[in-house]
Structure formats: structure tokens, C-alpha cells
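okkk here we go again. third time trying to get the flavin mononucleotide bound version out, last two times i messed up the smiles copy paste (missing a bracket lol). double checked this time i swear
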Amino acid sequence: MKWEYNSKYPAIDDLRSKAKRKIPRFAFEYLDGGCNEDVNLYKNTTELREVELAPYYLNNYSGADLKTELFGHVYDAPFGVAPVGLQGLIWPNSPEILAKAAVTHNIPFVLSTVTTASIERISEITEGKAWYQLYHPADSSLRDDILKRLEAAKYPVLVLLSDVPSFGYRPRDIRNGLAMPPRMTLQNILQIMARPEWAIKTLIHGTPNFATLKPYMEKGLSMKQLGLFMNKTFSGRLNEERIKPIRDKWKGKIVLKGVATEADTELAIKLGLDGIIVSNHGGRQLDAGQSAIKSLEPIVKNYKGKIKIMMDSGIRTGPDIARTLASGAEFAFLGRSFMYSVAALGNEGGNHIISSLKTQLKQVMEQVCCANTAELEKHLIR
Ligand SMILES: Cc1cc2nc3c(=O)[nH]c(=O)nc-3n(C[C@H](O)[C@H](O)[C@H](O)COP(=O)(O)O)c2cc1C
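finally!!
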């Protein structure tokens, strides 16, 4: 796979600015924002960027290998596409575009329960290589039905989300009356009319819907009914009793996402889970929480080797991925960066961002004289 990126958009800020110009304001603000006053959203990236690497210029060196083994699969790079809900609202077809780019580049794509492409469609695109992120269903028969569909579609990894016990307080979304499909208020209609390419593509592609959940929903639900359906269907809060039966039933790997403490890491190990993603949902849930990189440090110190440790939240660039791995994470995930790229560049966006991130990470590794991703830890300046 060639790493080809569009030289007009080499920086993540180029993509973010272009995305802002191309999609309606309610969609951009849903993607871009954090919760409350965005304190943790900001800290995630600024505190990650305090991590510094040492370059060893005079060592012998034969090149950088980005390949990284995870759960028995050798990926071409140590990063993947984090689950994002309502993707089709941000850009039509975006989960399909990203899943295709991810499988072509041999990196993992994680499908959200509440996005706009179905379990089966994404499995087809990724040839059974995508991971699935589960919002915990309140009803065990619904949970079992989803698990059965995942098994039939050959998903190797199930990601259980722990950090949405209650829905984040997001001022922009509240102000915009965010809903799916978008509510046709005068304000939203004006925002859509100002973005004709988004409007036409959305019209052609069809109104976005919760594709995976369709079989469980009555047809033609109003937004209010849809909200009631979601509240009734999912019990966001996870605990030991809810995780245990999933561990017993699911034969593949299980990853707990949204871990911020040693206590939750310890429980994940006790319950026989295979990995954790240290994450604060990209600063969208707990504004008074720690940045992900700060949460990572004691977890790596005390639990590395006992469970696979991954991280997301605040990672935007190749140097950011290098900082995350140097700090002891074994794999990185990014949410917004991928979506900025697809919103900015459409079909081309998936390949563009993955190629650019690979190129940037390789350059960092060559610069510091690091042979493979596991060795980045040796370059951490403590
Ligand atoms: C618009 C948006 C929607 C998201 N939806 C989900 C979701 O449905 N499920 C989930 O597990 N995480 C969701 N996340 C969190 C991401 O998986 C990931 O943790 C986060 O984006 C990482 O931070 P970053 O955006 O700074 O890279 C969402 C994030 C964003 C930005």
C-alpha cells in the first residue's frame, strides 16, 4: 500500500479548517467539541505534547518498522480508528470510507453501536477484520442477538465502553438541538443551505440512520420516541455482573474502553479481559477528569504485561502517536483526526490521513533512531 497524501493538507489543522468550511455548523460542533468548558479536551493534547523524546544520532541504524502485533494480528502501523457515533451526519458514507481505508492500510477500524453503518456492511468491507464497540444493552436478549450477529460477521475484538454511565453535558449540542436525522429548525436549514456539497451528498446517500440498531426499532420513530428507545435500550453503566456474562459468551478478545484508573484496570484483569483503552472519550464526558496521558502513567507502571494497554484522547499527529507509545501504551487510537480528514476530503480522506500519520510517525522514528514501535519507550525523557 502506497502512502500517498494530498500535499495541500499536510497538517491536521488544514483538515480541521477545511472540514469546518464544508459541513453544517451543528455537525462540525458535534465532532469538534468536548463537554462543559472543554478543559479536558484541551488538556488531552497539551499535556500529551509535554512528553519529549531523545534522539540518538550516532547509533547504528537500519530503518524504522511500523508493524505492530496486537491480539495475534500484525498491523502495518500502531494506531487505529476509534469508534465514533453518528458518523454519517458528519459526512455521508464516512464509516464505510474509513473502514475501507483502514483495511487497505491494515490498521484496525472500530465500529460504534450508534453509528450509521451496520455490523454486516462493515464486516463485508473489512473482510471480517473490524472491531466492534458495544454500548451495553439493558436487555440480555438484545445483547445476545448483537453478539450473535458479531460472531456471524467474524468480528475478532469486542470493545466494551465504560465511560458513558451518563450522557456528557455538551453545550454546543444542547444549543444546536442535535438530533438524528437533523432537526429541521430554521437555524439548521440555514446551516445546511450554506453547505451545498454536504446537502447534495446527504440527499444522494439518504438520511443517516442507526444502521446496526434498525432491526430493533419501530419504523418511523419521532426524535422523542428515538430518545426514549435509546434510554430504554442501553444501560450505559457497566459493572462486574454485566461484564461477566459477556466474557463467558464471547470467544474473541474483549477490550475495556474508557479506563482512567488503576482500580478499573485491576478489575479488567480480574475479569479476564484482554485489553484496555485508557481514554476519556476525547474530553467529552468528564471535564474535571485527568488527561489520558496522565491516567496512562501509573497504569503502565503497575500493569504493563498483565493486560494489553492502549490509549486514545488528544492524539492528532505522528509525533503524538510516538509520544503515546514512548509513554508505554502498546497501541494508539484516534477519533477526531480521521473524521476531520473525511469531512474535509470525502472519499480521499481515509487514505490521506492514514498515509500522512504513517509518514509522520516513520519520520519521528528515523529521527530518533528507533527500529520498531516497541522500542519507542527507550526514547522517553523522564
Ligand atoms: C464525534 C464523536 C463521537 C464519538 N462517539 C463514540 C461512540 O459512539 N462510542 C465510543 O466508544 N466512543 C465514541 N467517541 C470517542 C472516541 O472513540 C475516542 O475515544 C475519542 O474520539 C478519542 O479522542 P480524540 O478525538 O481526541 O482522538 C466519540 C468521539 C467523537 C469525537
